[in-house]
Amino acid sequence: MKKSSKVVLSGVALSTIGVTSYLLKEEKRKNKFISSMQMMKNKAINSMNKDKQVMEKTGHPDPHDIEDNTMVAEGSMYAVNYYDEKKK
After folding, report:
1. How far apart are CA 66 and CA 51, in angstroms?
2. Of 8, 19, 63, 65, which sits with the fewest C-beta atoms within 10 Å of its C-beta?
3. CA gap 11, 87 in Å, rounded
4. What's the predicted TM-score (pTM) here?
5. Euclidean distance between the first and final Cα of the chain, in Å?
6. Using CA atoms, how far apart are residues 80 and 14, in angstroms rounded to an integer?
């Protein structure tokens, strides 16, 4: 890494630390920042859990899940009908 890029990188890091320190100095801003970080964390965790649930269900269909089975049946006919219409 060149010397000039190290200087720029350290300047950016120091300014980020300075701005963050200034913003978190007041208790009201600090609480707002912490609550927004917790909300973002919860959204990320929920998103990962949804992805995990979808992956667990993939390839293991439940025969009693009527809604899912109906969706699969409708989806498979769409491709066949589309192909038939294109062929005409």
Report:
1. 21
2. 63
3. 64
4. 0.39
5. 63
6. 61
